[in-house]
TrEMBL record:
GO terms for molecular function: DNA-binding transcription factor activity, RNA polymerase II-specific; RNA polymerase II transcription regulatory region sequence-specific DNA binding; zinc ion binding. This is CCCTC-binding factor. The keyword Membrane does not apply. PROSITE patterns: ZINC_FINGER_C2H2_1, ZINC_FINGER_C2H2_2. GO terms for biological process: positive regulation of macromolecule biosynthetic process. The keyword Chloroplast does not apply. It holds the Pfam family zf-C2H2. It is found in: Nucleus.
Length: 584
DNA sequence: AGATACTTCGCCCTCTGCTGGTCTACT
DNA sequence: AAGTAGACCAGCAGAGGGCGAAGTATCT
């Protein structure tokens, strides 16, 4: 079994959270050309129903899976199954491992996949949406594109799995039909009569022992039945089935997976396969299939927004937009719940996007580097790094930035008053940016497993900040003590010089006379004074009295009687005179 | 057939946090 | 003067919120 391309995708970027897929760990050749995945819905399923190779489902499910999946159904939840295309090579059509593991993980989807180029393997099952009810009978109805065996470009697809009030016949497999992956309508009582079910309509069944593709099975079944030929052009494109006694007729679109119990619905549906768009916008010449679509479109030109929110000033073109807005802003209802974390969202697309943070799926690839994104916006934003474009300009200093957020921080930090600063909770440090406070906390306040020792004493510290503070206590300490007298000093070199007073050592001899000195600078002064005829001592003249002095001493901060602080330079011999004079 | 409900895709935004280069104070 | 460490700063990606708009299915 080849590893999926998804899993092989390099991850130079942020690590993906979530469980890893492990379905290819074990493999056994079942000798068959198909794989069946069976989903069991908790206690509502027959625990003795047989799964793969006759193994009882309950037995298969005992092992659980690495993923924590699908808790018991909660009212008002939908489910998503993430499927991934897995390409197979000749001789690698070992489906047993896949199926076995996926039964454990997914427990519930019964599928037929032909031995061949690619198979679909469920990645995760996530709850989604509203509509399911407590005590539902189990059943998962899925229709899958016929081309699942060949669409190499589609690495991950999603199929909505709905808890309809049907019971899947587990001796049968799912029906795979042509066309797109079909999303079935949510389970609402009002629609119950229209949904097609596995038991009621055998359209969803196919013998797993048959090596033919499932759609072939269906066609075979159709051949056995006398089909109703409709003279209508549209109807002529559809497969229809005769009504057997007590059985409903399923009208089936030949161009996609659409089915309906009503011919009128099918006829209307067939228009979606037509390019005919007779309703043209007079403002932009864009064409639409229906008057309603055109009207909504024209409203975007005119600004007409008939659907006003009762709780705020917002208004929308359609009621759907208003309903969504109200969920976001007012009711805070989030029906799409992630089964792997606490995330929930207002929209299904947001849940799908969120799930990519669990699966690591990155469908949007940069064609210039190895980066791949989980959504289109991030890829677009990433592409700016290749173009070098800096679209955001600071209106104050005209500095340019790659992202709006970066510019916003810049303006806040550089051009705003009352800039917020973040105080470290462990010390009194204030840091301009929250993210840098995080760096500060990691560097200075994180616990270190290996304690650090003070270089001046035996103290040990597990926190860098504590060590730094401790070291400061040594700063003005005369920690170098003479063992022969009471002398103590701050620097070791001073102690070395001092110790020569005890030993009598004078290591700096004058090269011109026999005199020796304990310190080098004493030798230098001696040499200049007695042996260097070119040496002219610098004379600093006092600006007050004109008297000359050999050196400056230092600058000195003085506070006058008014409290002002001034910098005063003075001569050492003049110190008292100058200071007194200045202060007066 | 029109109205309505619902789905899907896309765009843009904000907030967040990590990273690495630079600046600066301290040793 | 040089080395070091912490703060500053811009770049950049992850995650999620909110809305616009078009498409599709169902209801009336």
């Amino acid at each position: 079994m080849m590893a999926s391309e998804d899993s092989a995708l390099p991850e130079p970027f942020t690590k993906i959270k979530g469980a890893e897929r492990t379905w290819d760990r074990t493999r056994e050749d079942d000798g068959g050309g198909k794989i069946s995945w069976v989903k069991e819905r908790n206690s509502m399923c027959d625990p003795h129903a047989e799964g793969l190779n006759g193994a009882p489902l309950a037995k298969l499910l005992e092992g659980g899976g690495n993923l924590e999946l699908s808790p018991s159904p909660v009212q008002g939840e939908k489910h998503l199954i993430m499927l991934q295309t897995v390409h197979l090579k000749e001789g690698e059509e070992d489906f047993q491992g896949i199926s076995q593991l996926n039964i454990q993980q997914q427990s519930g989807v019964h599928m037929v996949v032909q031995r061949g180029a690619s198979v679909l393997q469920p990645l995760v099952v996530v709850q989604q949406g509203v509509g399911a009810q407590q005590n539902l009978p189990t059943g998962v109805a899925i229709s899958i594109q016929d081309g699942v065996y060949t669409f190499h470009d589609m690495e991950v697809m999603q199929i909505n799995v709905l808890q309809e009030k049907v019971q899947i016949d587990r001796s049968k497999d799912l029906h795979v039909v042509e066309g797109k992956v079909q999303q079935l309508p949510p389970n609402e009582e009002g629609r119950e009569k229209d949904i097609f079910t596995v038991e009621k309509a055998k359209i969803l069944s196919c013998d797993a022992k048959d090596d033919m593709s499932v759609s072939h099975c269906e066609h075979k079944e159709q051949e056995e039945q006398a089909s109703i030929k409709n003279t209508d052009t549209l109807e002529a494109q559809t497969n229809t089935q005769h009504r057997k006694k007590g059985e409903k007729v399923i009208f089936h679109c030949d161009l996609c997976a659409f089915t309906s119990l009503r011919m009128s619905s099918l006829n209307r549906h067939m228009k979606t396969h037509s390019d005919e768009k007779p309703h043209v916008c007079h403002l932009c010449l864009k064409a639409f299939r229906t008057v309603t679509l055109l009207r909504n479109h024209v409203n975007t030109h005119t600004g007409t927004r008939p659907h006003k929110c009762s709780d705020c000033e917002m208004a929308f073109v359609t009621s759907g937009e208003l309903a969504r807005h109200r969920r976001y802003k007012h009711t805070l209802e989030k029906p799409f719940k992630c089964s792997m974390c606490k995330y929930s969202s207002v929209e299904a697309s947001k849940l799908k996007r969120h799930i990519r943070s669990h699966t690591g799926e990155r469908p949007y690839k940069c064609y210039l580097c190895s980066y791949a994104s989980k959504d289109t916006y991030k890829l677009k934003r990433h592409m700016v790094t290749h173009s070098g474009e800096k679209p955001y300009e600071c209106y104050v200093c005209q500095a340019r930035f790659t992202q709006s957020g970066t510019m916003k921080i810049h303006i806040l930090q550089k051009h705003s008053e009352n800039v917020p600063r973040y105080q470290c909770p462990h010390c009194n440090t204030f840091i301009a940016r929250k993210s840098d406070l995080g760096v500060h906390l990691r560097n200075l306040h994180s616990y270190l497993a290996v304690a650090m020792k003070c270089r001046y004493c035996e103290a040990l510290f597990h926190e860098r900040y504590a060590l730094i503070q401790h070291k400061k206590t040594h700063r003005n300490e005369k920690r170098f003590k003479c063992d022969q007298c009471s002398y103590a000093c701050k620097q070791e070199r001073h102690l070395i010089v001092h110790k020569r007073t005890h030993t009598g050592e004078k290591p700096f001899p004058c090269v011109c006379c026999s005199k020796c000195f304990r310190q080098k600078q004493l030798l230098t002064v001696h040499f200049r004074k007695h042996h260097d005829s070119n040496f002219k001592p610098t004379v600093y003249e006092c600006p007050k009295c004109g008297k000359g002095y050999s050196r400056w001493v230092r600058y000195f901060l003085l506070r006058n009687l008014s409290g002002e602080i001034s910098l005063v330079k003075y001569y050492i011999s003049h110190f008292y005179k100058e200071a007194v004079y200045w202060l007066n």
